[in-house]
Design goal:
Organism: Veillonella rogosae
Shape: elongated
Distance between the termini: 39 Å
Strand content: 15-25%
Largest sheet: 4 strands, antiparallel
Order of helices and strands: HEHHEEHEEEEH
Structural class: alpha+beta
Protein name: YcxB-like protein domain-containing protein
Number of strands: 7
Length: 166
């Protein structure tokens, strides 16, 4: 998902920052993936049925490598647009080809916080109930995580000032 798509799909206001997996992890993953692909091609079996499975595995690896550089979250004017982690293996393979369906918008006013390992976001719905969104932000750089926290705190301060003025 691009910044423009995030603004249009969620009416989240202007996108201030896009968060991606750390560059070092992206390049390490790409190098390892290409080495695995080279080994698969080198040791390709001669039987055509087995070759089909090897080619499918190659396609999945190459598609995963292609998606390493995609955004994991967006810091927006009105809230966060976050990529939800798939719940199952079936959802994981679905997310490889339909990744944009796994993005969700959470208004700053509803955010309670992140779990210690950045694996979940805890938020409050309009009726006072709490919901948890599974995330995969462990590999996002520390400075980007702090930018997210800063955006949440900034919005909370503005909200508190407006509340006190009433």
């Amino acid at each position: 998902m691009t910044k423009q798509e995030a603004m249009e799909r969620f009416s989240s206001g202007a996108v201030q920052q896009s968060l991606e997996i750390h560059r070092g992890i992206q390049w390490t993953g790409r190098i390892i993936g290409l080495v695995v692909c080279a080994l698969i091609v080198k040791y390709m079996p001669s039987d055509w049925v087995e070759r089909v499975w090897y080619y499918l595995l190659l396609l999945v690896i190459l598609w995963t490598l292609h998606r390493l550089g995609e955004s994991q979250a967006f810091i927006c004017e009105k809230g966060l647009v976050l990529k939800r982690r798939p719940f199952s293996v079936k959802e994981y393979f679905h997310s490889l080809f339909n990744g944009d369906e796994y993005f969700v918008f959470v208004d700053y006013d509803h955010i309670i916080g992140f779990t210690e390992g950045w694996r979940e976001l805890q938020a409050m719905n309009g009726h006072g109930g709490i919901y948890v969104i599974p995330l995969d932000l462990t590999q996002v750089p520390y400075k980007d995580k702090m930018a997210m926290i800063e955006a949440i705190h900034k919005k909370m301060k503005i909200h508190q000032i407006n509340y006190l003025q009433l």
